[in-house]
Structures are given as structure tokens and as C-alpha cells.
Amino acid sequence: MITEHPMTPLERRTVSSLALLYSFRMLGLFMVLPLLALYAVDLPGADPMTIGLTLGIYGLGQAVLQIPLGWLSDRVGRKPVIIGGLLVFILGSVLAATAESIYGVLAGRALQGMGAIASTIMALVADLTRETQRTKAMAMVGMSIGLSFAVALVLGPVVAAAGGLAAVFWFTALLAIVGIVIVAALVPTPPSGQVHADVGARQGLFKRTLQEPALLRLNFAVFSLHFILMALFLLVPGLLLEVAGLERDRHWLAYLPALLLSIAGMVPMMIMAERKGRLREMFLLAIALLIVAMLLLVAVEVPVVVYLGLLLFFVGFNYLEATLPSLVSKMVFPGGKGTALGVYASCQFLGAFAGGAIGGWVVKIAGAPAMVACCMALALVWLLIFLPGDAVSARAGAAAE
């Protein structure tokens, strides 16, 4: 169907522009990830708890406001909500860039998170594409998230080397300004009031979504995944500095090879899952890789072991990050895809917030090994929840809209 009816030039331009906008938005949030634990220690008021809270606080605003702002865009239009969200993000970036204490950076990150426009961007993609092209369009935008994560881990240390943490926040503000230009100049304005069953949460379907055991397991999975991600990035930059001996402006030399090799490691898992029918086995293997990676990061303080742990973590993380949304789409009840994905995204951002806040608190009171032990325990619970044979399945036709 998609081959018989390719995208029109207008659809290609629109989807490319929105994918670029989405990637800029996520790049601005992710760039701080490999930096905050290293650069914020020089700020007044900084300790592991406040640094962890600052790292994850954006997730709270995203989790709380993502769905309401999507509903608002149904009423007032997509572009006003997107531009408003980008302006809030710019304000947060400027506040963080000019902060003289960790609390100013914390407030700036909170404001960044309140510009929660991801669901509205996806709704705009649906507005401006035909139904036959919508799956492809959503995939293109979704791919930009993974690309943004990879670019942020490499670009963040480079920008910080030139001007410190403030330079990173000024750079993210600039990206948001470019995003506003993209929305205003390149993206058409759709008719207002459009509603799509596959995009955007619907109030009447929340109860059913929260009662579905399969969806509850997947929501717990993405919460756990991003909890662990945020918590570990309170530890990993310090390991690269102290154990691997990499100066903080050279950390990209560790992240770039690890990310590239992780893609190579993830591809065989995707092939086994999709073509060989080993979805459950590969899903469980990915969780196990996270556990092994965490064990390596704290058990042996040897540079090569740190690099290996980082590689295994990214293999597991990238595979799960790509697989979980697909499983939500396949396992949801008919007509509930938009609502299920909205709840899923909120759980993802809540996990990021909890991982930063709780991880930082545990590091402060009990040390980094205790924090990693908590993450490993969470991953183990996750593994046990998905051990039953029917916990990971792609129910054909379940997502028919």
C-alpha cells in the first residue's frame, strides 16, 4: 500500500520538517545527560541529590503536561501549542544558562520540560499525512528520537568543552529558535479540530488502557528503562573521568564507538525477533544485558570493563527503546492506540524523573554502588514480570484501527 501510494512532495517536506523539529527538541533535552554530573559540581548547592533532581526534573513536566497540551491543540490548533511550547523551552534554556546555582539550573530544566509538545507534533504529523502514509511518517519522526540521543551524547561534551554547561543551554535555546522558524515557515497549517484514533489520548479510554495487563507491563517496562538510564548517568561520566582517564571534554570518544557498535549488536537481535520469531527471547536478553552492564560498571574498575559495560548497556537500551512502542501498538485494543501511546509516553517521562531524583537521593545517602544495586533490582523485577510465556507477544490484528 505504501509503495503503491508514495508520499507526495508536500508530505515529504512536512514530515522531514517535523522530524527535524522533533530531533532538535529532544537533542536539547538529551545533551545535558552526559554533562550534568561533571559540570554541575562546581555550582553552589550542588550535591548528588540536587544534581539527580536537576537531571530528571524535565521528565515531570513532560509526564504531566504531554496529554493536556495535546488536548489543547485539538481546540486551538497544533502550531500555536508547538510554538508556545518552544518558547517555554527557550525560557527554560536561558534561565539555566544564566543560573549561578544548581537551583537556577533546576528551575530551567523544569521549564524546559513544561514545553511538552511531543504528542502535539505527532498529532500534526497525522493531520498532514494521508492514512496510507501515516505509519511511515510516524516511523520517520520516531527514528529522530534515537538519532537525537546518539548525537546528544557526542555533541554535548564537544559544546561543553567550548563554553561549559552554559554553552550547552544557549545552544539548546538556539535549536528551539530554529524550531520555531521551521514550524512557521515550512510546516503547513492543518484544519483545526481533527482527531485521529491512532494519535492522541482520549479521555474515555483511559480506564480501559489502565486495566489492560499487557499494557501495564509495557508501561512498567518503559518506566524502568528510563529510570535506569537517568540514574546511571549520575555514575557513568564519573567512571569515564576517574577510571577510564578521559577528560570531560573527550567523553564523546567513549560514547561514539559504544553507540555505533551497539547498533551493530542490536541488528542481529532485531532480525532474530522479527524474522525468526524470537521476540520474547530477544526482549528478555536485552533486559539481561542491562543487568550485566550495570554489574560490570560497578564490579571492576578497569577501563576496558567500563567500555564493555557501556557497550552492553547501549545494545540493550537501544533494542528496548525501539521495540517497546511497537509492542504497545501491536498489543493495544482496537481504537485505543493513541491513548495507549499517550499513557506509555507519560510513564517514560515519569521514569526519567524518578531515575534522576531517586537515583541522586540514593547516591547521596548510600553511595553509587547502592544506586546501581537499586537499578539492578528494578531490572530484575522487570525481567521476572516478562518471564511468563505470554508476557511478550505480538498479537496479530490487535491493533487494527
Q: Gist?
A:
By secondary structure, this protein is mainly alpha-helical. The protein is 77% helix and 0% strand.
Work out the radius of gyration. Answer: 20 Å
Q: What would the average pLDDT be, to the nearest integer? A: 87
Number of strands: 0
Percent range for β-strand residues: under 5%
What's the order of the H and E elements? HHHHHHHHHHHHHHH
Shape: globular
- What is the rounded distance between the termini? 16 Å
Report the sheet with the most strands, covering strand number, pairing sense and barrel closure.
none
Point out poorly predicted stretches: 396-401
Instruction: Assign a percent range to the helix content.
Output: over 70%
Number of helical regions: 15
- The computed structural class is mainly alpha
Structural features:
mainly alpha, disordered C terminus
Overview of the structural elements:
- With 401 residues, this protein is mostly helical.
- 77% of the residues lie in helices and 0% in strands.
- The protein contains 15 helices and no strands.
- Helix 3 packs antiparallel against helix 4, helix 11 runs antiparallel to helix 12 and helix 11 crosses helix 13.
- It is globular.
- The two termini are 16 Å apart.
- 54% of the residues are buried.
- The C terminus is likely disordered.
